[in-house]
Every structure is written in C-alpha cells, then in structure tokens.
Design a protein that fits this description.
By secondary structure, this protein is mostly loops. The protein has 1 helix and 3 strands, in the order βββα. Strands 2-1-3 form a 3-stranded antiparallel beta sheet, with no helix packed on it. The protein is globular.
C-alpha cells in the first residue's frame, strides 16, 4: 500500500511561497503521498533541520481563490493550529 511507502527527501531548489505544493513529512526521508498547498509564504520550510526541508514540486497557477475559500477556517494542523488532527487523516 502506498500509504506505508516513504519517499526520500529532495533538495529544496525553490522556496515554499504561496501556491507551491510540497509533500508533508514527519522526519527525514519520511514523505508519503500526503501533500499540502502553501497558503502563505513559508520560507522556514525551505531550511534543513529536523525535517530536512520541504521541496516544492508543483505550483497552483490558477484557482488559489478557491483553495483560500476551502481552507480559510483552519490553517495549520493541531496542536499548533485549528486544523484536523493529523493522526486522524488516512
């Protein structure tokens, strides 16, 4: 099953600015098929560190207004934000 496979980290070549799409991760070389769209400029996600950085692989070129309407109520996942508990997402 894909949900149990991990993907090695990529080198961050472009910044995590608004509209760029990156893989979620829980540690070094731990990416799976879960992705997120940056709702704002997230330059701190570019840096190497405990998570090795988040390398954007795509960019929303039209429709960010729709994404803003879908996700404007919660933002970051719990416990630091009001979003869903990441452990509950399958």
């Amino acid at each position: 099953l894909w949900q149990y496979k991990t993907i090695a980290d990529d080198i961050v070549k472009v910044t995590n600015k608004r509209g760029r799409v990156s893989f979620a991760a829980s540690g070094t070389d731990s990416r799976t098929t879960q992705v997120f769209v940056n709702l704002g400029d997230n330059r701190p996600l570019d840096k190497d560190g405990a998570l090795g950085g988040f390398a954007p692989f795509a960019e929303v070129i039209a429709g960010m207004d729709t994404i803003d309407r879908l996700y404007s109520d919660y933002g970051e996942g719990a416990p630091s934000g009001h979003g869903p508990d990441q452990r509950q997402i399958v």
